[in-house]
Structure formats: C-alpha cells, structure tokens
Amino acid sequence: MKTILNIEGMTCEHCVKHVMQALKAVNGVKSAKVSLKDKKATVDHKDGASVEALKAAVITAGYEVLQQDSSC
Length: 72
Ligand SMILES: [Cu+2]
Prior knowledge:
Distance between the termini: 4 Å
Bound molecules: copper (II) ion
Number of helices: 2
Strand order of the largest sheet: 2-3-1-4
CATH class: Alpha Beta
Mean pLDDT: 96
Helix content: 25-40%
Number of strands: 4
Order of helices and strands: EHEEHE
Radius of gyration: 11 Å
Shape: globular
Largest sheet: 4 strands, antiparallel
C-alpha cells in the first residue's frame, strides 16, 4: 500500500531526513521517500500501518500534514 502525504514546514535536507526517519520508525513501513521540492512523502507500507500513525509521526517530528492520499 502506498500513501502520499503533503507536508508543510520542511525547509532543508535536514528536515527531509528528520521526516524520513520518523516515517520509517512507524510499524509496518517498508520505505519512505521524501521530497523537499514537492513537499511530499511517499510511503510504502503494509496494510496494517495506519495512515493516522504516519500522520502522527510527521506531526510529532514537528511538521504539518495537509492532506493524504492512499492507494494500493
Ligand atoms: Cu531543515
């Protein structure tokens, strides 16, 4: 399952790494790609990993999630 999160608040590559680590720490996440330019995170995860948990991880890391899109 793939989820795309639109993230606000990332300003540099350090933020990108911060968000990536936060997402990868969520149970069930296989990989996470974060783009500073697009303000987007593309997360590949098992069905068991909830989108809410992904959002919460980003918010806890100090950024804002504007919207999310999920597809299989
Ligand atoms: Cu930064």
